[in-house]
Amino acid sequence: MAAALxxxxxxxxxxxxxxxxxxxxxxxxxxxxTTSVAGQSSRSVVLSSAFFGRRxxxxxxxxxxxxxxxxxxxxxxxKQQQGVVVQCSVADSSTIQDSxxxxxxxxxxxxxxxxxxxxxxxxxxxxxxxxxxxxxKTWKKMVRVVVxxxxxxxxxxxxxxxxxxxxxxxxxPLALNLLGSERSRDALEGVAMELxxxxxxxxxxxxxxxxPTEVFRDADWALLIGAKPRGPGMExxxxxxxxxxxxxxxxxxxxxxxxxxxKVLVVGNPCNTNALIALKxxxxxxxxxxxxxxxxxxxxxxxxxxxxxxxxxxxxxxVTIWGNHSTTQVPDFLNAKINGKPATEVITDRKWLEEExxxxxxxxxxxxxxxxxxxxxxxxAVSIADAIKSLVNPTPKGDWFSSGVxxxxxxxxxxxxxxxxxxxxxxxxxxxxxxPDLQIDDYLYERIKxxxxxxxxxxxxxAHLIGDENGYCDLPEDTTLPGEQ
Length: 485
Ligand code: LMR
Prior knowledge:
The protein has 485 residues and is α+β, with helices and mostly antiparallel strands.
């Protein structure tokens, strides 16, 4: 245990009593040694004393020191950067007889972005001094990944992929900041508990919180999954507005506290327009850093082409999804390749490509909802992982991937100032470029224009959230998410 830096007056919490040996620091005199505690559980206690002022403390973790057989917990206030470590017990106070120890402040304990709470064993991690010395020398500098909707189904698949090293690499230590809602607070802790129990070596921090301005602090990656589903009787314009407000707030929070080069991947629907809203509310962050997830659609298209060609799906490459993550999306069979050959030479049935393949991909989300009774979660998580991997690894020569990206200056004449799915390639540095010169025939052109029109209409509906004047909401009839049919 680290040396005591600060010793507080006698502190009694339910099931735990802490006695100071001396007092140093603090704002009040040592006469306030009668610190009293009102608290019901071992998890959340309120300390009240002249020394501490009146602050809420939350016991973050408990562990047993094997040598002394004593139990310890870390108490942190919401704003406190360092954890106060006290000897205590989880047992009911009535069963504890004068459990006495020294209050200690451990350097760096629970050091997390301000206002975000480290979780469980991930607070104790900082009790392990000189953390860098424990890490293999080959490990990279830690990246901080924020996940919103962290207690939801998609995240439940995704977080474990991230923590395992499968996405960012097996030499990439990770901090996960999990954003939930007040309502999902317990579920958020449940996720954090499962992450604890998984003993991932690369996972160095888990922080949970419900305030974007706290949870997004120093984020290198923001995976914005949380969004409200469309409720009964709700117009699509209402959904755009409802979720748009969430993404406007999150854009502002990213702008205020995230790393200036944070990469943002929006998954919550309608993801293209939500990504545009976040982007417009985050002028400090390069517009290029905002993505909307269309990788799921690309994966679905690859699978359908492979199935028709009678091949395994790793034979299919160069598949672009153009446009919106909606039923107007355009899965591009014209530029796709199967075994390195144009897909149209392998699948010569153009009628099938236009009339079966295309709608099947466009409406796959809905077909899945019919089977599951809910939206896709596992395959969405896989596609988020794929989308990140495509940005942190060089794109195989000659290939590309699809992502909803900012259109200003694009080489295909798509209207500026939209988030539109386009073919991209990356050097593996988190950045990308739009792949130019793909063949666009009349069939593709007409459909791409339709998806563009839809996105322009969505943009008008959210004008009030992106600082545009004269907005009005007049959506084309077929403006639907893949799951809405
Ligand atoms: C999906 O593509 O599976 C989802 O976006 C479906 C939806 O509409 O929520």
